[in-house]
Amino acid sequence: MWKYIGKRILMFIPTIIIISFVIFFIMQLPEGDYVSSYIARMQAEGEVFTEEDIASLRAQYGLDKNWVARYFDWVIKIVTKGDFGYSFAYGRPVWSVIMERLWLTIAVSLTIMVFTYLVSIPIGIYSALHQYSVGDYVFTAIGFLGMATPNFLLAIILMYFSFKWTGDPLLGLFSTEMLQEGLHWYNFGEFLQRMVIPTIVIGTAGTCGVIRTVRAQMLDEQAKQYALTARAKGVSERTIVYKYCLRAALNPVASGLAGSLSSIFSGSTISAIVMNLSIQGPVLYEALKTQDTYLAGTILMTQAVLVVIGTLLSDILLAWLDPRIRFEKKRS
Amino acid sequence: MSISTLFQHKKKKKSDEDYYLASQWTLMGRKLMHHKLAKFSIILLVFLYAMALFAPFVAPYGLDDYDSNYKNSAPTKIHWKDEDGKFVGPYVYKMTYVNNRQTFKREWAEDTSEKFFVKFFAEGREYKLFGFIPCSRHLFEVEGENGGEGAKIMLFGADSLGNDLFSRILFGSQISLTIPFAGTAISFVLGIILGGISGYFGGLVDTIIQRIIEVLTALPTIPLWMALSAAIPADIPVPRMYLYITVIISFISWTGLARTVRGKFISLRNEEFVMAAQVAGVSTWKIMTKHLVPGFMSYLIVNLTLGIPSMIIGETSMSFLGLGMRAPATSWGVLLKETQDITSIAQYPWRLIPLIAVVVTVLAFNFLGDGLRDAADPYK
Fold this sequence. Notes:
The structure holds two protein chains of two kinds. Chain A has 16 helices and two strands. By secondary structure, chain A is an all-alpha fold. In chain A, strands 1-2 form a two-stranded antiparallel sheet. In chain A, strand 1 and strand 2 form a beta hairpin. The longest helix of chain A is centred in the middle third of the chain and has 36 residues, at 94-129. The longest helix of chain B has 31 residues, at 238-268. Chain B is an alpha+beta fold. Chain B has a four-stranded antiparallel sheet. Chain B is globular and about 85 Å long. Chain B has helices at residues 3-21, 24-34, 36-53, 55-58, 165-176, 179-201, 203-218, 221-229, 238-268, 272-279, 284-292, 297-320, 332-336, 342-347, 353-376, and strands at residues 79-81, 87-99, 106-129, 133-142. The A-B interface holds A 14-15, 18-19, 22-23, 26-27, 29-31, 144-145, 147-150, 152-153, 156-157, 159-160, 163-164, 169, 262-263, 265-267, 269-270, 273-274, 281, 284-285, 288-289, 291, 296, 300, 303-304, 307-308, 311 and B 211-212, 214-215, 217-224, 226-228, 230-231, 233, 309, 313, 316-317, 320-321, 336, 339-340, 342, 345-346, 349, 352, 355, 358-359, 362-363, 366-367.
């Protein structure tokens, strides 16, 4: 097992190197760079720049070299000094910009994941055990609708109702008072209240997906020979469902863990822009628009690394859940 | 034995024979027709695509026919009966507004002094059907529209420029409904070729392609789309913009398909019929396209159908953020851009109508995909 984990960790080093290279390549695709978009903005405000000004700005930001050279400089600095570069727009090191929001981003993503699985697995089991009941139809209908609605539009709809009923669209994770006082135990309740809409919005698509998987899997497993054998032996229905079938049914859910993490990042980017959440999404969007290369690159990298870690965790979880996979690994 | 039972027996035999002689695709089609939701979805989708195809005929107004008197107008009410309750056919009143000084909101009212009848198949604005047949008939028009003085018919209300939302949704569907198809076509080709090579040859090629797929799937989709579409220059003609967006969308979605194809190739390449073909001297390309791919074609089609909804949502999200299609082009995402701020929906809730179009289309494709999956499964 440990050998397998070690091998997997070694394998994702090249993956991360390729990911970072691809990100850097994509980042330089748009015409111009941060300096040219900065100058365009400044000129719109009436500033005058000479050729030397522009050249010195480029040299100052290190944009006078070509992108491959800049990529290698960046990577070498990360490896040797742990320096992720400098954000042009924020005027400080990238890492400090990211750290500001990283914990909140991880907290929000984890909350959403926990919500997704806590809600969807019981509903999936219920739907499978009561197939074609009213509850099953209701959940299936909600599930389909949830998957069909783009989540940023769900955000708008929920905000609209919240605005209509309470007069507050509940924008952002913190109210103005909370921003001044900081997060304390006495306003933690309000923070949780403000988490409700983002969690529903970003979590719905994933929840609906998992409900459908669990339902289909449970139905499949229940019809299999071993369930029939157990039933014939007189094993209680409870044991059959929860000890036998559920374990087998959860396999694809466990292997979908990494995918759900990735879709939370994807989904949260636009929703966070719409709902004004102070997580990484909106920063990334701005950075991509202004071509703040190192900032955007580092954010995409951290997300990719988190997804790769998620893949690893889900593989380990899968091996732990399913002896068939575990023994196959041992044999090879 | 009476004649009728004999006849029935013969009929039964005929249908049995029919069943055994039917091709895989016929069987799939038959099963699909038994799936009620899928059948309904097909009808709905055919209807939606027909509307997109005949958009300039069905839409009463063109994309440039805005009317500043109708800015943010509420949907036009259609009346059928006159004041005495007598049926006179569909007609509309001219909409007038007063600016409310407290809420700064336009309050709409009908000017009931004059009736404007809705005429079907009337002459109107000229257009080219399918892009080349000059035509000027429209499905419906309001009579007496001279120079913007008359009444307008806006079934779904108007946007902030005074454009008819109904017409814009129709024209938008031309883009929103075709991008997924074009994107699917590209990712289909990419997925089959790369997945096929990866699975058939194995070895180093396989490792490289698998790494590339791993990298592409590790990146969160929408930020990647954003990064790629940020690379599209701002002022390019609509057809090129369309092409770029399609390429970007398909660029990421081929990976899943390639994985599936690879898996299928690996399990099939050691089968005896492949070896027989190899021994007989059939070329590799022909083995792949003639012997292997048809074996799991139905599976691929299911996969593709289920992939379309995410493409529609992808295009909508990108356009919503201003990174996808941009004005003057219209797509559902572009229309939904106006719903970005909460006050605009609170005042003009009909702007959410394009959302219904998106949700209905996505649902229809999902149900169709589900039905196809059940139909393609030989064990059910």
